[in-house]
Amino acid sequence: PVIDYNKCIRCYCCGEICPSKAIVSKKTLFGKVLRL
Question: Which residues constitute the domain of residue 25?
Fold first, then answer.
């Protein structure tokens, strides 16, 4: 798959659903707070 960064909203769902864990994202502090 190809990620279109212009459409990416940084929800990290792609990394969560990737079966081979090929997509790794570095979460910011704000992203970590939103996931709590």
Answer: 1-36
